C-alpha cells in the first residue's frame, strides 16, 4: 500500500474545522513533521479566501498579517516538498457558511483571472511550485450552482498562462453522504463526469474526496469513476478524510483511527496514483490539539517503520 504523500493546508483558519492559530513558528514545526512522515507535497487550499489574501496582493484589498504563501514556499523548499497552489475562493464559501447563501461564479472567475497572473509573477519561478489547484469543488453540474463557469474557463486560462504547470481539482461523490435523498448511483456519477469532462479542458489531476462515499461503497464509486477520468486523460488522487463521517454528519473535532484510515487507503489503492490526506495539520500532526491526532500519527509512523520495502 502506498503511503500518504500529499496534505491540504488551510492558511486562513476560517473553515469549519478546529482552530489551530498557527503562526510562522508552528508552521515551521508542522512542515518538519510532514517531511519526517514522508509527505512530498502540500496543497494550499486557497491563496485568497473572501476578501483576504495569504500574500501581499495588489488585487485583493486585505492580507494576512504576514506573507503566509512566501513562508510556505520557503518551508517547502527547505524540507524538499512541492506546493500545489490553490487560487481564489471569493464567494463559493457562502454555500457552507454565512447562512448557506448562494455564490457568484462570475465574481469568482473575475477575481481568479486577476489573482492567477499575480501569483504566477510572485511564485511562478519558485522551484517548489508543482502547479495550481482550483478550489471550487464539484460533485456534478447542479448541486453547487453553475460551477461549470469556473471549470470550463479557468483551467484553459491557467494553461495559456503556464502550459508547463499541472492543474488539479477536487471532485466529491454524489452519494447519500453528500446529497441525501438526491444521491445518485456510482454509474450515474460516472456518466455525469463523462459529460462534464467533454467540456472541461486543462485539468490534469482530479483529487477525489474519498470520505464523500460510505466506506462499504467506496470501491464501487472509484471503480465506476476511474475509467471515465482515465478515458479523458486525467490522473486520479484520493483525498483521504482523516476525520470520521457517518451518514451526512462529519465529526471534524476528532481524528479517525489508523485502522479506519488504512482501510480507506487499501480500498482506493487500485485506482489512484497518490494518496492525499485532509488534513495533516489538524488530524495527523503529533502536535495537533484535535482529539486522536497524536494517536493517529503514532500509529501511522509505526506503519511506515514496519511496512515492507517497495519493490525496486
Description:
The protein has 312 residues and is of the alpha/beta class. The protein has one domain (4-306): Glycosidases (TIM Barrel, Alpha-Beta Barrel), CATH 3.20.20.80. It is 37% helix and 17% strand. It has helices at 24-36, 68-79, 105-123, 148-151, 154-161, 176-179, 186-197, 218-231, 258-268, 280-283, 293-306, and strands at 4-9, 41-44, 48-49, 52-53, 62-63, 82-86, 88-89, 129-134, 167-169, 205-209, 235-241, 245-246, 249-250, 274-278. The strands form three sheets. Strands 1-2-6-8-9-10-11-14 form an eight-stranded parallel β-barrel, surrounded by four helices. A four-stranded mixed β-sheet has the order 5-4-3-7. Strands 12-13 form a two-stranded antiparallel sheet. A hairpin with a 2-residue loop joins β12 (245-246) and β13 (249-250). α7 (186-197) packs parallel to α8 (218-231). The longest helix has 19 residues, at 105-123. The mean pLDDT is 93.
Largest sheet: 8 strands, parallel, barrel
Number of contiguous helices: 11
N- to C-terminal distance: 15 Å
Shape: globular
Q: Which CATH architecture is right?
A: Alpha-Beta Barrel
Structural class: alpha/beta
What is the gyration radius calculated from CA atoms? 18 Å
What is the CATH C-level name? Alpha Beta
- Helix fraction by DSSP (H/I, runs of at least 4): 25-40%
Mean pLDDT: 93
What is the number of beta strands?
Answer: 14
User: In the residues, how many domains can be counted?
Assistant: 1
Uncertain ranges: none
Q: In what order do the strands lie side by side in the largest sheet?
A: 1-2-6-8-9-10-11-14
Amino acid at each position: 500500500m502506498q503511503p500518504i504523500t500529499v496534505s491540504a493546508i488551510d492558511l486562513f483558519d476560517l473553515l469549519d474545522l478546529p482552530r489551530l492559530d498557527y503562526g510562522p513558528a508552528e508552521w515551521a514545526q508542522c512542515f518538519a513533521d510532514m517531511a519526517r512522515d514522508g509527505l512530498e507535497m502540500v496543497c494550499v487550499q486557497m491563496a485568497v479566501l473572501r476578501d483576504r489574501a495569504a500574500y501581499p496582493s495588489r488585487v485583493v484589498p486585505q492580507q494576512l498579517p504576514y506573507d503566509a504563501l512566501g513562508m510556505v514556499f520557503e518551508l517547502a523548499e527547505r524540507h524538499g516538498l512541492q506546493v500545489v497552489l490553490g487560487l481564489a475562493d471569493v464567494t463559493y464559501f457562502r454555500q457552507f457558511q454565512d447562512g448557506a447563501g448562494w455564490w457568484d461564479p462570475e465574481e469568482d472567475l473575475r477575481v481568479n483571472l486577476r489573482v492567477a497572473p499575480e501569483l504566477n509573477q510572485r511564485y511562478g519561478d519558485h522551484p517548489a511550485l508543482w502547479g495550481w489547484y482550483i478550489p471550487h469543488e464539484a460533485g456534478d453540474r447542479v448541486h453547487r450552482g453553475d460551477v461549470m463557469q469556473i471549470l470550463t474557463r479557468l483551467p484553459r486560462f491557467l494553461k495559456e498562462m503556464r502550459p508547463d504547470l499541472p492543474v488539479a481539482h477536487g471532485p466529491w461523490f454524489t452519494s447519500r453522504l453528500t446529497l441525501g435523498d438526491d444521491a445518485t448511483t456510482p454509474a450515474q456519477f460516472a456518466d455525469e463526469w463523462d459529460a462534464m469532462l467533454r467540456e472541461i479542458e486543462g485539468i490534469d489531476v482530479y483529487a477525489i474526496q474519498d470520505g464523500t462515499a460510505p466506506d462499504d461503497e467506496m470501491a464501487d464509486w472509484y471503480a465506476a469513476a476511474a475509467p471515465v477520468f482515465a478515458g479523458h486523460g486525467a490522473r486520479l488522487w484520493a483525498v483521504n478524510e482523516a476525520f470520521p463521517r457517518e451518514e451526512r454528519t462529519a465529526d471534524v473535532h476528532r481524528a479517525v483511527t489508523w485502522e479506519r484510515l488504512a482501510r480507506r487507503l487499501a480500498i482506493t489503492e487500485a485506482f489512484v496514483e497518490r494518496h492525499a490526506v485532509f488534513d495533516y495539520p489538524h488530524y495527523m500532526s503529533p502536535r495537533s490539539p484535535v482529539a486522536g491526532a497524536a494517536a493517529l500519527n503514532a500509529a501511522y509512523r509505526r506503519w511506515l517503520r514496519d511496512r515492507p520495502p517497495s519493490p525496486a
